[in-house]
Amino acid sequence: MRRIVLCIMLALALMTSAAAFAAGPEPIKIGYLAALTGEYAPYGIAEANSAKMVIDDVNASGGVLGRPLELVVYDTKSRPEDAVNAVRRMIESDRVVTVMGANSSSINLATAPLVDKAQIPQIGTATTNPLVTVDENGKVRPYSFRICFTDPYQGTLAAEFAMTTLGKDKAAILHNVGLDYAQGLREFFKASYTKLGGTIVAEEGYRDSDVDFRAQLATVKNSGANILFLPGMGRDMALIVKQARELGMADLAVVGGDGYGEFMNDIAGEAMIGTYWITHTDQEDPVMAPIFKRYEDIYKEECKEFGNVTLAYDLANWVVDAIGRAGAAEGPAIAKALADTKGLELKHVTLTMDENHDPYNKPGIILKIGDDMRSHFFMKVEPK
Amino acid sequence: METLLQQIINGLSLGSVYALIAVGYSLVYSILLFSNFAHGGFLVIGGYVCYFFLGGYFLSNFFEGGVGTNIWVAAAAALVGAGLSAVIVEKLAYKPIRERTPVTLYMLIASMGMNIVIENIFVVTIGGRYRALPSVIPMKPVSVLGVATTSQFDLLALATAVVFLVGLQIFLSRTKWGLAIRAASYNLRTAGLMGVNVNRLISLVFFVAGMLAAIGGIFLSARYTLYPQLGAITTKAFVAAVIGGLGSLPGAVAGSLILGLAEMLATGFVSSQFRDLIVFVLLIVTLIVRPAGLFGKSVGEKV
Q1: B184 and chain A: CB distance < 8 Å anywhere?
Q2: Between A20 and B201, residue with greater pLDDT
């Protein structure tokens, strides 16, 4: 009930602020593509909230190019087909100058042709699949960007961590066969891991709506694997870890990708203790602490998906900076400013873009789940 | 051998949860001859009622800290809550249709609509995030004959499913209302002519179906996690009900166990990537060989 009242109040506040802008210069519209419902909603809601904080701050200090900003949020419903419709509406009826989000490679792969044609830059937060910014023919997509590292890099990181740091040489992989992100990350992990001398002893698949993984895990158990690599999304990975421990696989080491979300500890509880996750940022980062605190004050809920909050926060600031440098609220100029970004000080990274529209030499963070069932900084991995 | 035993145990435990849901489908089908796709919604309602009672979120607007309850009270509330919602859904969405037309296809479509409505009510009011039930149900691993592992939770789920399914069977075969339901499943119109209050009977059937869905909901949200789309798992239970023969309760149970075992064995001995292919081929073959399902009573519209 309190939440409904809050929503109504928020809507009223938005309307009055829109009315206030109507008197001044026309606002610059920026789209945010986020999963507000469906499987990936926990990540998407956190991102949209975080970006809203930045946009409000910028407006409070006078906007960009003398104009206020307006954030237009659309729901992907966690599905590429709905995301395509959302982006079409953002571009055609809202006339946004930039699309921020989404956080899933499958979605940005689906919307890439659309933003290219409309010449509106789109920047993904956790879209790590290489094809998001560079197409199958090796040609850079002129209007697609990302603020995260890529899967080849993440896969190498995971493989090196498993083999060298943990010393585990027999790996099993459990992945969602319908997810571009998972397919890519699995391939890159496999390549690096076998090159380092490890053996892949089991490779099992599952589908989007699956919640029971015991059959696959029984196969993993019999394969004699000593490490389980999970290139998936939070809910699936949490259920897999939980069910693995229930099947008595207490010693199996677990390393997962950046689909990690803090809510996984609620789902899997004690089973998560001692597992490792490769992410973009950590919860204990002192630079981000005041921002997480503000997030909790504004939205009245624990800032659980801190990775997405951080990425969206920095993304929004990056876009504001790029519009300022572009000097015009137009797609092509903003795209050029984004591509030319060099040494931009953001909260979690000093951002320089390479020729593939990927961040250059971005470090990865490995988190370990402690006995308190929260993630803790384990080590920072700099690219070689 | 160990693997086989392990997969059979896993399959039975998965199948028993399917059975609770599949029986609800079959029960409604046996009376009204349509598949109630809003069944997944009742399951989700049961899960959320249980969650809110357990966590003490219930009435937290009126009492400081809310009224936290134990699992028995929470489960009872979930059963009644889901049962009542099922009755309300029937009164709102299906009754006006069945009073106007004998074509059950319209009720089928209304049920698909209600499923979306229920799911989205949860999304807009309390949000789409994943919620975990407090650990009130024991989850410790249990060794079976020293060669396979199951958990206390699975044994409990199996036992609960058996208790409720046997209870339902006794209710249907030993009570007056059970007799009325069985009569109505032969012919609803004739049962009405014989003096059975048809509207009350249908409400009762929906209440029971809602309760069974709630039990499925509690176990599913405790084992996996609770979110508005959890009802999607009922697709598998529906397939199980069709394999067993829609409208037949023993059929629903048999179909569920077969499906649970088929899924686990296909994953364990063929490939996890072929699992759904094998399961749905099984469905098609069953329908070709026995169009009414294993225990089906007549050949009619399946959906």
Answers
A1: no
A2: B201
Packed helices B249-269 and B152-174: angle between N→C axes, nearest 10 degrees: 160
In angstroms, the separation between the Cα of residue B22 and the nearest Cα of chain A is 18
Return the structure tokens found at A243.
């069910």
- Given an 8 Å threshold on Cβ–Cβ distance, is B10 in contact with A4? no
Question: Cβ(A305)–Cβ(A296) under 8 Å?
Answer: no
If one counts the domains in chain A, the total is 2
Check if A308 contacts B (Cβ < 8 Å). Answer: no
Q: What φ, ψ does residue A29 adopt, rounded to 5°?
A: -95, 130
Spatial distance between the Cα atoms of B56 and B46, rounded to a whole number of angstroms: 16
Residues paired with A33 in a beta bridge: A74, A101
- Scored b (16 or more CB within 10 A) or e, A258-273 reads bbbbbbbbbbbbebbb
Q: Quick one: A240 and A321 in the same domain?
A: no
SS3 B148: strand
Q: Taking a C-beta distance cutoff of 8 angstroms, is the pair A311, A126 a contact?
A: yes
Cis bond upstream, residue A102 (ω within 30): yes
> Is A230 found in the same domain as A135?
no
Decide if B138 touches A, using CB distance below 8 A: no
CB contact set of A232 (below 8 Å; sequence gap of 6+)? A174, A175, A176, A179, A182, A240, A256, A257, A259
For the domain that residue A8 is a member of, what is the CATH number? 3.40.50.2300
**Domain count of chain B?**
1
> Is A358 contained in some domain?
no
B141/A205 CB distance under 8 A: no
- Omega before residue A202 within 30° of 0, cis: no
Tell me if chain B has a CB within 8 Å of the CB of A373: no
Task: Say if residues B52 and B58 touch (Cβ distance below 8 Å).
Answer: yes
Question: Minimal CA–CA distance to B217: which of B302, B118, B125?
Answer: B118
Q: Spell out, as residue ranges, where chain B has pLDDT lower than 70.
A: 1, 56-69, 139, 145, 297-303
Question: A303-356, pLDDT tens digit by residue?
Answer: 888 889 999 999 999 999 999 999 989 999 999 999 999 999 998 889 999 999
Q: Model confidence over A269-289: pLDDT tens digits?
A: 889 999 999 998 888 888 888
pLDDT reported for residue A77:
86
Give the separation between CA A301 and CA A309, rounded to whole angstroms.
13
Q: Same structural domain for residues A137 and A170? A: no
| Nearest-CB residue to A205 (from B126, B220, B273) | B273
By residue range, what is the domain housing residue B65?
2-134+156-289
Q: Which domain holds residue A176?
A: 151-279+365-381
- Number of residues that make up chain B: 303
Residues A145 and A176 in one domain: no
Contact A232, A259 (CB under 8 A): yes
The alpha carbon of A163 is separated from its chain's Cα centroid by a whole number of angstroms, namely: 26
Instruction: Indicate yes or no: CB of B3 within 8 angstroms of CB of A218.
Output: yes
Check if the beta carbon of residue B222 is closer than 8 Å to that of residue B133: yes
CATH of the domain at B94: 1.10.3470
User: What's the confidence (pLDDT) of residue B302?
Assistant: 44
Q: Supply the pLDDT for residue A258.
A: 87
Contact A37 B123 (CB under 8 A): yes
Test mutation, A77, A206, A214, A221, chain B, max B CBs within 10 A: A214
Q: Whole-angstrom Cα distance, residue B209 to residue B25? A: 7
H helix runs in chain A, sequence order: 2-23, 41-60, 80-89, 105-118, 151-160, 180-195, 214-222, 234-246, 264-268, 289-299, 306-326, 331-339
Is residue A232 within 8 A of residue A256, CB to CB? The reply is: yes
Query: Which neighbouring-strand residues pair with A75?
Result: A34
